[in-house]
Amino acid sequence: MAALPPVLVTLTRKNTTMPNSPTALTPSVVDEHAAAEYIGVSVGWLRNNRRSAVTPPFLKYGGKLVRYRVADLDRWIDAQLVTA
Questions:
Q1: Is 39 exposed, middle or buried (0-12, 13-18, 19+ CB in 10 A)?
Q2: Phi/psi class of residue 61: alpha, beta or left (left: φ > 0; alpha: ψ in -120 to 50)?
Q3: In the chain, what are the domain boundaries?
Q4: What are the residue boundaries of the Helix-turn-helix domain, all occurrences included (predicted)?
Q5: Complete DSSP assignment for the chain
Q6: For position 9, what pLDDT does the model report?
Q7: Which of 8, 25, 27, 67 has its CA 20 to 30 A from that of 18?
Q8: pTM for the full predicted model
């Protein structure tokens, strides 16, 4: 079995690139700015509605640091489907 070639990895966070990295890194947790962009809303909307049931679930570290799981964002997007 042939070895896979190294890939250029681009991290979503801060658009940092890691050349010659042998593994692809995909963040499983993103900050509120990346989350807002990912689901197509403003950061202000996420902040203002964070405690309501209309926004995706979030993680809170150390009392202030808010993060969102990408899997939760995907599930939230899927739940927004309206069939008439």
A1: middle
A2: beta
A3: 26-79
A4: 35-80
A5: -PPPPP--EE-SGGG-EETT-SS----SEEEHHHHHHHHT--HHHHHHHTTSTTS---EEETTTEEEEEHHHHHHHHHHT----
A6: 35
A7: 67
A8: 0.67
